[in-house]
């Protein structure tokens, strides 16, 4: 573990955070994670993708009165960059996009934040969404963070102790290698000519890898050569919709790693956020932690998974974090506690 302090390098079109353990590059002022350098690999993210399609916040929204759980997809691109905290102990940077009535975007002010701490093998991200009272009403079915990793390196996926395996390649979902089982559900495909023959006859569907919120605290991918783990850690459920039994997407063929915040999956329209006329609203999503680890034994992935679970417990025990600089994220001294039992009496 290095003692090098956190360094921030601001370039014409990129911003680089580096603490000697990893280096994270983001577009400026867009706030897209374009590169993650770690353990001798120059970029863990998919270098075959365009920079805007590697690590990003996104949302789905629709106009007020719309029915259903779909809408317009919006990859959130910032228009203004600023430095919030810069010291050897911590860097926090901000990428904002403000709404005006000429925009066709969702009527929200969005502030995406990224944090790197000294001696930390990872980085944090959170965002503040704000809707002013005088702005138009709208629906928000989904928002999340998406990371797309290098397919030639990350082929082993881990969601739980009993849900781990080598995964098919994204190429196996191309039209000449798979068959869509139902046109209404294009996510589910039969692998008929996969690159690796052992996957032939399997059905791949990202919804197979969903998990209840109460068990969805760490998941990710492992690269075997060299042995590297890429993990998405969610230390609290307070910013996720649906409660502990609500299922959310995790990781899936891509290789894709997700942090889901709002989602109507498995529930329908009842869980679509619907902001009404003259309704002000502000919400902090996150922070979540992107954790990286490494090991020397290329034959066994369990040390990386076990270490990721240990790190997850450290993050849970540290919640609520003290380091986010936004006044919209209340630290522990500004929060109360509720304890006790809930008794439900109904006709059953």
TrEMBL record:
Q: Name one GO molecular function term.
A: carbohydrate binding
Cite the residue spans of the region called Disordered.
325-348
Q: CDD domains annotated for this entry?
A: RGL4_N
InterPro entries of this UniProt entry? Gal_mutarotase_sf_dom, GH-type_carb-bd, Polysacch_Lyase_4, Rhamnogal_lyase
Checking SUPFAM superfamilies in the record gives: Galactose mutarotase-like
Report the PANTHER family cross-referenced here: RHAMNOGALACTURONAN ENDOLYASE, RHAMNOGALACTURONATE LYASE FAMILY PROTEIN
Name of the molecule in the record = Uncharacterized protein
